[in-house]
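Working notes for the structural subgroup meeting. M.R. asked for a predicted model of this chain before we commit to crystallization trials. I am recording the input and output together here so anyone reviewing the notebook later can reproduce the run.

Input as submitted:
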Amino acid sequence: MALCVVQQVSASATHDYRSEVQSHQFRPHSGDKQEVADFAQALVKHRANPAELEKLLAKDSLNHFAMQDYVKGLALFKSVQVVEAVPEKLYTVTKEDAYNNYRAIVKFKYVGYTADNRVIEKTDWIGLVKRGSMDGAAWQAWGVIWQDSGIDVSDVRLIQLEKPQKGEEIGVMTTDAGVIKLRLFPDKAPKAVENFKTLAKKGAYNDMIFHRVINDFMIQAGELTGPDGKELPSIYGQDFEDEFNRDLFNFRGALSMGNAGPNTNSTHFYIVQSPKVDQEYLDLSALPLNAEAKYKEIGGRAYLDNRHTVFGHVFEGMEVVDKIAAQKTDEAARPLNNPVKVQKIEFVIYNP
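Returned structure, recorded in token form:
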């Protein structure tokens, strides 16, 4: 995501709001939040109305022209939906009267719909100044403090939640707790799929325990060691790179690579078992709109997206995953008694 700091100087501007000295900071109350939310709605509503915009922009700001350009950017969308507009900072400044010394730094998150039917999500930070008198005061925008370049959040085809086609190769993982059936996505994550299949066909995962189990999160396996006790590498002889794309997510049931950081994939894999999703992580992620809705519906761990490669998905046997996740564990999330093992992993042609 590109950073774009907007700072444009007008020849007729007289005030540099960036250089003001704070006198106090406040915790925004419900009235402040409502005023900021109303301002954001007005900015969106009047984005193509110059007369109304004049009431919303601080004319004396050094960044006045930049704010005009910013609103012109909003006007390029055929429609705009405000997702969030909240004061991240609320403070007063020196050398102003009591009705004109309030300032706010506002998180402004919105979704814009383009003429070619794309959906763009942006989160910007805008500086506001309060102007008025005893008879009434209103917020105006003095400048953009930080502006992102936007993320395409148009709907995608959620292929991992589709049933396999007749004749498609699937994975069948037989465990002590039952059978888990998996779709694999070699066209989306070819190296991860090939690594998993090759190791499984060699029997590397046979009689291997799920060594890390966290109920309402995930079950992890793939801890392979050689005769010398050292951890074995991937089939490529070393760690291999991540394979991220817009089509696969860490929904409940996702089969993903465990790692120790970027591009450190080896033999570890996990299955997401979480039946819920943390709204905080959805708020911080720019996901396709239907993917965000699906997370809310079926659960998962959205914060793992673009950190762990998703290369498959459980289409049958989630009750087995839940059973494995319910094992009692120690503080390191290792099962205490008779840990469930992977007996074998086979690959067969799907014939419903």
